[in-house]
Amino acid sequence: MSEATTIPTQTAPASVSAAASPAHTRPSRRTDLTVRALQIVLALFLAVASAGPKLVGHSSAADSFDTIGFGDWFMYLTGVIEVAGAVALLIPVLSGVSAIALIGLMIGAFITQLTVFDGENALTPVIFLALFAVVAWVRRERTAEFVALVRGRI
Predict the structure, then answer these.
(1) Cα–Cα distance between 126 and 109 in angstroms, integer?
(2) Please, what is the Cα angle at 44 between 41 and 47, to 5 degrees?
(3) Closest CA to 81 of 114, 112, 106
(4) Cβ atoms of 46 and 84 closer than 8 Å
């Protein structure tokens, strides 16, 4: 009788761990919902508060880009990139890739804040970079799916 109880306990953990290992890399439901909410908030911020003034040519955005030295074309380009990133954050298969691209945008914003504006608002892109890094990390499986899709393996 001890063999009967020993055998199921020996095989159960092996089968459970084998079945659980692919799902183990996926975030928990709570994490998934929390990061989804974060993605929505970040997308709203990017599309409305950040890209909006750039795309309508608001004087505060235009003055900043004139100070940078690239002019209006770069302001509009940055606004379009921000809107594209905001939309991609909301598309499940693109969310991780979008977060990675937006990390790159925040690195550029940080460098610009340090070099052109003497670090006046340099902490803002760092905070957003950290938030995008959380999204990229949690959505890393989606990023792998996207890469496989692009390579034609799915």
Answers:
(1) 9
(2) 145
(3) 106
(4) no
Contact at 8 Å (CB) between 20 and 59? no
Of 116, 1, 20, residue with least CA distance to 69 = 116
- Ramachandran region, residue 69 (left: φ > 0; alpha: ψ -120 to 50; beta: rest): left
Q: What percent of the chain has pLDDT over 90?
A: 79
Q: 107-141 pLDDT, tens per residue?
A: 999 999 999 999 999 999 999 999 999 999 999 99
Neighbours of 130 (CB within 10 A): 11
Q: What share of the chain is helix, strand, coil (3-state, %, to 5)?
A: 85, 0, 15
- What's this model's pTM, rounded to 2 decimal places? 0.81
Read off the tokens for 19.
Answer: 């079945």
54 secondary structure, DSSP code: H
Q: 86: exposed, middle or buried (C-beta count within 10 Å: 0-12, 13-18, 19+)?
A: buried
Helix then strand count (H, E) for the chain reads 8, 0
CA distance 89 to 96: 7
